[in-house]
Design goal:
alpha+beta, 24% helix
Length: 123
């Protein structure tokens, strides 16, 4: 066989294998609070509702903390290290991405879901 044909095929296979490995190693599962407390995973998606009365924002230290309630009714304190999202006051549901540290979920990313953005034409 021709080396000019084999070499690109081998390099392409290596590149595809590397991309798949990177994707799989970066993927994180969606879990509830009970599963998160049992897991040793460093990156999990934890969906739930923010308890609005517990939200505390420290803009200077760039820390947001609140209590999250999952679909089973379980609660966990969440600490998010980063700037508070602009639409945080409107959010009802949240997905925090991070890991458990003791009894606290430490999030390094936070995705907010605001129902007003998806409601039919309010004018």
């Amino acid at each position: 066989m021709n080396l000019k044909l084999i070499l690109p095929l081998v390099l392409g296979s290596i590149a595809i294998t590397g991309m798949v490995f990177t994707f799989v190693s970066q993927a994180s599962p969606y879990v509830n609070i009970a599963e998160a407390k049992k897991s040793t995973n460093d990156s999990m998606h934890l969906p739930g509702e923010m308890v609005k009365s517990t939200v505390q924002v420290s803009a200077r230290e760039r820390i947001v903390s609140f209590v999250l309630v999952d679909e089973t009714g379980a609660k966990v304190p969440v600490v998010y290290k980063g700037s508070p999202p602009a639409n945080m006051g409107e959010a009802t549901k949240v997905v925090v991405i991070g890991k458990m540290q003791g009894d606290v979920f430490e999030a390094d990313r936070m995705l907010l879901k605001c129902p007003s953005r998806y409601e039919a034409g309010k004018s």
